[in-house]
Amino acid sequence: MASILRFRKLCYVEPCSSLKFQSFETPKIENRDEGGVGSKTQNLLEKKQRKNKNKKQHREWRCIDSCCWVIGYMCTTCWVLLFLYHSLPATLTGFPVPESPGTRLKAEGLTPLHPVVLVPGIVTGGLELWEGRPCAEGLFRKRLWGGGFTEIFKRPLCWLEHLSLHNETGLDPPGIRVRAVPGLVAADYFAPGYFVWAVLIENLAKIGYEGKNMHMAAYDWRLSFQNTEIRDQALTRLKSKIELMYVTNGHKKVVVVPHSMGVIYFLHFMKWVESPPPMGGGGGPSWCAKHIKAIMNIGPAFLGVPKAVSNIFSAEGKDVAYIRAMDPGVLDSEILRLQTLEHVMRASRTWDSIVSLLPKGGDAIWGNLDWSPEDGHSCDLAKKGYLQTSGDTNFNNRDENRVFQVKEPVKYGRIISFGKETSQISSPQLPRHDFKDLPHKDSATNFTSSCGEVWTEYDELSRESIRKITENKAYTAQTLFDLLRFVAPKMMQRAEAHFSHGIADNLDDPKYAHYKYWSNPLETK
């Protein structure tokens, strides 16, 4: 009877306490009647204990639960957006679609006159696989770059291996052939919903343009410009295509529309086509005047872009900085073995085309440690009302609680500054750097790549060398090339055979007839 009373107390007075069930011991029952009741009570207690234990296990939140919830939210969101996309009308009432330029110009009576050649820039052209390793089985003539990018998630290391070029020649690695996608589809869309040339092509088509008078000069944007001719004869095919369009369209000259890096690529082409063989195309000095009506540059990179420096130096950029700020350590997590930046750096350093985008002109164009063309100009309108460059270091706004400290203005001539203070202090306070005195490799302090790590040229540098070239150092457009030659000697040795970034003293010097100068407007006529 005692056991029944205790069971009643546990069930109605102190429920859901598994610890009390564990400490509960059924007293010994001497008579037969109480023994039957005690055995039944014990069974009930064991069932309740197992039930409470199962409930506790179900209440524990596991990592798989979080993943399922995230996947569920994503699927639900996609389903809702897909439903809205198909259910909503193309145009909402009260929100008329603006008339496109092509429709308006067609109504005005415009018709095609000059043939048009479009020249895409870096990374915007599609690349497809023609020959690959066993890991790329089933990808023949499938896009590795441009399009859905689904292979990044299916086989990322295989995908990067096939997009990388040979580290010494800058051409195809053995057993791999990746080629540019031909035709207008090569660069109409970079990814689904992310257009590049699609809108311009559509508007030209509304006027009356089509395949016979509109051409996309697709090329492998990873290669150096001269290597596109050596490997694919891309410059020869572009020359033949322009000549064909000139003849088949009533001897109308061609209008060329290059974009971004495509601008300096076409500049290289114009020098190539008029230069004598074997280095040039042999078109003669009047070929461009005969076949080209005009050139419409879109976002030209004539003098290079500063972000190419950070891309080569550490595979970083503004977008990568945003991702790291939101979730630091994920891109290069050693736990997850992602090492994203190392993989990107290893692949992108085989692309000679990135070197073509490094700043050209040195300190004369981009500024030195104490001067830059941006001096005296505020690039951030939001801060214009608060910052002033007068001799006062403190000033109060109308709101007495807001006090601002005006620091030394940033020196934009310093393309790379290791440390925020380094970008602001005066040049005499900066330590001088001499790469000749630095050991490039020291077996005693050299990094050793462990199993699973990604090899880069940084693995050949000693820790002491890295410390000396970065500690409180600042580099200009002139000295950054010394820095890049030190941290990436193989890449710079290979790429600088195809590109130059200086300013010509005398354009009549015979050395400027070499193709390495053709894409630099400061070193070519």
Any descriptors?
Rossmann fold; 525 residues; globular; four-stranded parallel β-sheet; alpha/beta
Please, could you describe this protein's structure?
The structure is a single chain. This protein is 37% helix and 8% strand. The protein has 19 helices and 13 strands. α18 packs across α19 (489-495). The longest helix is centred in the first third of the chain and has 28 residues, at 32-59.
Write the layout of secondary structure elements.
Layout: H1 2-12, H2 18-23, H3 32-59, H4 63-87, H5 101-107, E1 116-119, E2 127-131, E3 143-145, H6 151-154, H7 156-163, E4 177-180, E5 189-191, E6 194-195, H8 198-207, E7 214-216, H9 225-232, H10 234-248, E8 254-258, H11 261-274, H12 287-291, E9 292-295, H13 307-314, H14 318-326, H15 340-348, H16 363-366, E10 394-396, E11 403-405, E12 416-417, H17 463-470, E13 474-475, H18 480-487, H19 489-495
Parallel strand pairs: 1-7, 1-8, 8-9
Antiparallel strand pairs: 2-3, 2-4, 5-6, 10-11, 12-13
Helix pairs in contact: 5-8, 13-15, 18-19
